[in-house]
């Protein structure tokens, strides 16, 4: 609707042009009507915003009361990480490199960076027209603000602890980006004296933006569907992570607290009904990735009341986008470079108080209740 109004506004004079010394009573009456309509639109938008805010707060308090406690550690880590980078106390994350170690080739990096530059070039074409035609429209101003916030969120991708927050936020802020770019496209599409040149620039830019978005968001192996199940006759075979989750729900019941890696944490939560801990807070990543068993790890198990630990020896399991699928290998076995070191993988087999409950080959589930003093099946 805003774009349709913009198209009609291009054929008329700029707002406020009727306010001059030569105006007639008819034009003055028309101007009063326009001002009244704008005031009514602003009032309706403010009422909708107030209603949406109240409903959202009521939902958070009455239904999703755990949301603040779920998001606060993520957002606080993101803010802390950015502050450390700005102050020089933290290191930045390597761009175009996945958690599994894949590094994008040069042409993919150029396409990804070029897409961002092309979206940024919509500024001189889109924002002035928004100010000229929609500056009294709260929705248009909100969308323009989302466009600016989109580029601000790109800075979070430089942080190891904030990149996922920035990546997820871009999905919502892209709505404002699309609005500004749509107005910029209209400016270029019929641009004189050579409209064909403007259209060629627009179509080429959109192609690069589409390619850059795919390249920036997905590693090559995830850009097409990966094998998630195999049908053998009447039998359906799933990856080991699904088998571990289903076994745990059946054998141990739902609601147990499990420390594991990023991908198995999601499988155990969604399919196993378990409560999972993963990542750097609490420091489950080092709990699973170190050779020894120092006192701080024992304290971590006790402080959080962790009942079970699920260890996946595949390095890709730490990637919450790629760690769920079957492994594609020519021999059927993963090379040692794709696996945890044996002394790391077998770390929980050493203490006699820890029991091995499940072993699928790559995934092992341990009962650590004797160390954490948490109630388990034993």
- CA distance, first residue to last residue: 64 Å
Order of helices and strands: HHHHHHHHEEHEHEHHEHEEH
Q: Report the C-alpha radius of gyration, rounded.
A: 28 Å
What percentage of residues falls in helices of 4 or more residues? 40-55%
Please tally the helical runs, counting DSSP H or I stretches of 4 or more residues.
14
Count of spatially separate domains: 2
Instruction: Tell me how many strands there are.
Output: 7
Q: Major sheet, described briefly?
A: 5 strands, mixed
Unreliable stretches (pLDDT < 50, length at least 5) are 12-22
* Share of residues in strands: 5-15%
Q: Estimate the global geometry from the Cα principal axes.
A: globular
Textual characterization of the structure:
The chain is of the alpha/beta class. The protein has two domains: about 160 residues, no CATH class; about 140 residues, Rossmann fold (3-Layer(aba) Sandwich), CATH 3.40.50. Helix content is about 55%, strand content about 5%. A five-stranded mixed beta sheet has the order 4-3-5-7-6, covered by helices on one side. It has a two-stranded antiparallel sheet with strand order 1-2. α1 crosses α5. The longest helix has about 40 residues. The protein is globular and about 80 Å long. About 5% of the residues have low confidence.
